[in-house]
Amino acid sequence: MLDIKFIRENIDLVRQAIAKRQDTAPLDEILQLDSERRHKVIELENFRHTRRETARDRKMGKEAMEEGRGLRATIRGLEEEVRSLDRQLEELLLQVPNIPRLSVPSGKDERDNVVVRSWGELPSFDFQPAPHWKLGESLGIIDFKRGVKLSGTRFYVLKGAGARLQRAIISFMLDLHTTEHGYQEVYPPFMVKRECMVGASNLPKFADNLYHDEEDDLWFVPTAEVPLTNLHRDEIIPPGILPIYYVASTACFRREKMSAGKDTRGIKRGHQFDKVELYKFTEPSTSDRELEKLVNDAEQVCQKLGLPYRVKQLCTAELGFAATKAYDIEMWAPGCGEWLEVSSCSNCGDFQARRANIRYRSSPDAKPQFVHTLNGSGLALPRVLIAIMENYQQADDSILVPEALQSYVGEKVIK
Questions:
Q1: Is 354 a catalytic residue?
Q2: Which one of the listed residues 21, 164, 359, 383 is annotated catalytic?
């Protein structure tokens, strides 16, 4: 959430930033409500002052006492008006996206993202590489028909070595991030309260893309970013604790209404998938440096698996709602013939911290400040699974298991 004072004092900058994002926000309504609220607060304080002055007169007669009662009623009415304006203003502020950093390239769509580096050579084959859906069915490790029978379109079943390979990838990534990169593992709930979705910036903007239990008002997480953001909601983090690094593996649930008709073949895009999420709480002065480290942590997964990838800095129009700067990591999938996004790493500044009220003290007597939050996939399935299947496939449709995963899978070849 942006600070209303910042919007008020930098309205032209905010308008330009939102336009660069190819987004919209109710800025005029916000300014109007803010002005109305400030006038009401001044009026309220004037009536409170009058009441205090009246109360100091100990020789009040009946007329003065009645005047005092009238003032109290007026004050209560104004207080409720201010509370109502506060609620309306907050609802509108929650619809305003974050401001891109000046270093973020301007752009209108994904074609304006900038490739900043790449790693590994694209594989060459002496046969026509197959897409993962053909390999999965040939090996009996992906069952599309039974996935649809169980749950409908965009669901599938991993079987045998397919299920074991996915479990191996998750365990490998968790072990790497906890033992080499310094993250603390967390196993959070997969359903959260409404305020958690608001704090992580998923509500109200993306309500149509979320699964919701209306009776208990619980929301299925679209990513572990949501519960990790809210671990420290309404807290003041003591001095000397930051930065905090968390990693979590969860199932993720998305309705995918925004991608209707896209990627209908295979397992690239489903309503349920698994992801290892990296999350950081940092001081503002170090958050940009911590973003680069986070991207590097995600890249090391790709390197250790021996999978070619590239890193792209996202342009203004491609930034996530809460992000002020972001990078995507994409793996090459030769069977599909395309680059697959396996991680999006973002610095959200104090945007989520303001929504979730997460602050820190730099010293015991320092005034609390909002932390900066960062998140990124480290990495996301099933696209890592797709990349392994398609890059390590053999002419007989068997799949070599990357060396880093062999001890987890228990075999060198899936056939």
A1: no
A2: 383
